[in-house]
Amino acid sequence: xxxxxxxxxxxxxxxxxxxxxxxxxxxxxxxxxxxxxxxxxxxxxxxxxxxxxxxxxxxxxxxxxxxxxxxxxxxxxxxxxxxxxxxxxxxxxxxxxxxxxxxxxxxxxxxxxxxxxxxxxxxxxxxxxxxxxxxxxxxxxxxxxxxxxxxxxxxxxxxxxxxxxxxxxxxxxxxxxxxxxxxxxxxxxxxxxxxxxxxxxxxxxxxxxxxxxxxxxxxxxxxxxxxxxxxxxxxxxxxxxxxxxxxxxxxxxxxxxxxxxxxxxxxxxxxxxxxxxxxxxxxxxxxxxxxxxxxxxxxxxxxxxxxxxxxxxxxxxxxxxxxxxxxxxxxxxxxxxxxxxxxxxxxxxxxxxxxxxxxxxxxxxxxxxxxxxxxxxxxxxxxxxxxxxxxxxxxxxxxxxxxxxxxxxxxxxxxxxxxxxxxxxxxxxxxxxxxxxxxxxxxxxxxxxxxxxxxxxxxxxxxxxxxxxxxxxxxxxxxxxxxxxxxxxxxxxxxxxxxxxxxxxxxxxxxxxxxxxxxxxxxxxxxxxxxxxxxxxxxxxxxxxxxxxxxxxxxxxxxxxxxxxxxxxxxxxxxxxxxxxxxxxxxxxxxxxxxxxxxxxxxxxxxxxxxxxxxxxxxxxxxxxxx
Length: 627
Description:
The structure is a single chain. By secondary structure, the chain is mainly beta. It contains three helices and 38 strands.
């Protein structure tokens, strides 16, 4: 039996498995051997609905543990998928306000054990639960079964403004969680992002780290002009954190401060927003940090778990941390000191803006190695040219917007931004192969419109003078799918769902971290059926792989295979050495979670992935034929 005890395989988040039963030679034999359905539906009495099924299960002692969209926890037999128990925190009873615009979602749980005593830790909305792994019952010794996560933040916060989507980290006798304040809240005195540690047995809070300074003496306060740290919130830690257990170091990726696209009342670099922060896991004290975006106005969060890797560069072995980003860079640092493995240069960027009150930061950090894994910036040369008609339509529409290189500012006119606010890389992150030193990352290549407009004042969630709640606002789901008085209308496009830029619109990329170079880059996904059947493409001989946008990340195995899904009803397998597509297996619904793998007690290797969302969701297990 070979387990998968953490969402990222280990707390270093390599997403690597040493199992080699499934290989490049036999992966084509995989078939679905069981599936489990959460059976969650919209609940009219609470006004809630389940969103995309994005969990990654863990496997310990031949049992799978996972969280569902409504943040229930399920324990399943790892051989058969038979349900053993479930725990329901009834997160839906709080209504929809704190959840994502696309509905409730959650990406995994954490395991802790001491001898025969084992607990599952679930962070759901504004609470942290300790669940007996054997029975599914709450551990009453842990604060009566759960503890509140919204106390001691220095500013009022309710469960309607606080959410949890990524699993906790367990270290020694601590369970550690991040925070998520919804981006569509854009107000003075929004709650700052936090990392909090609680005693695994009692639930007592042991330490807290604020991602925005809380006093004028705090490190980074000088990067918030006019003391704007006093009233600015967010800089969330909504992505996954990673842990160097031996050194007791916690690696924390942070997001954009409020508001995401207009920084007129938070001038300055804005530490520790959009930064990789290394904390002492025992005390919460900062060891080092690196800010990847100064004064962010592009929603370029660091959404993915940092990969803790060991690489050899110029003959020197380095324990390193690699952080992939929405804006298409992989930043690589020495794990203890925070020194860049390769130089990172501060380069001047475009600061011309037509947005009143905005003052852009004059420089941004550019890694010299590895090269960008995603396309960056937009010009007319990037216009979609699948057909002459599409090319003409794309050019006409693109000319309505401001265009330029990476970090071209949002504008009143509307700016085409690539990577878009969804990346580049997103929460699915990268996988690392310790045998070869290769880092695998899935990237989306779409250009999004980023527009700023005057705040109409009719949305109680927004009190900034200027917002992205516009006809061409950058993150469409932030307001439009959320509804309400501030929801902007969706602009019409002559191309409909066809992207303005050339395909492929998604890639799987292999980066050699020993050399700091791209080894290969291949298209990922066939493209949506909505695009392929579009009237403008009727009769056109399209590439087999147009590329499918998505958020999830890869799994790599010693068997020579990279598994990846996302956006389509397929799980794909690639040769990890060459990038050649080996196989794709149909799934009942689009694959939305990161895949994981394990060998059961009976000796069978399974690959498991979460698919679908809402009422149509299933956890699917693949294996080779056998008893």
